What does this fold into?
Amino acid sequence: MAKYLLDTDWAIHYLRGKKDIVKAIDEYRKDGIVISAISIAELYDGVYRSPNPEQKEIVLLDFIEGFRIANITRSVARLFGQNGLNLKSRG
It folds into this structure.
């Protein structure tokens, strides 16, 4: 079972080679990390906006290899909304 859910922003920073993010995600992979279908869709948006989508897709597919893909259910979406509100209220 995975301990972490990878955020799209973290994935983008990883793909751009931000060293501290690369190191952290590589460490989290050892403990189990998943990426949501929504995040993959968002990453594909960036792939198809790039000047070289074929190359970017290869990089993306290589990156997500080995991640379990989490499907988003209604209860997960609800928790996301609740937690987002809680975090915003904390600043």
About this structure: The mean pLDDT is 88. Residues 74-90 form the longest helix (17 residues).
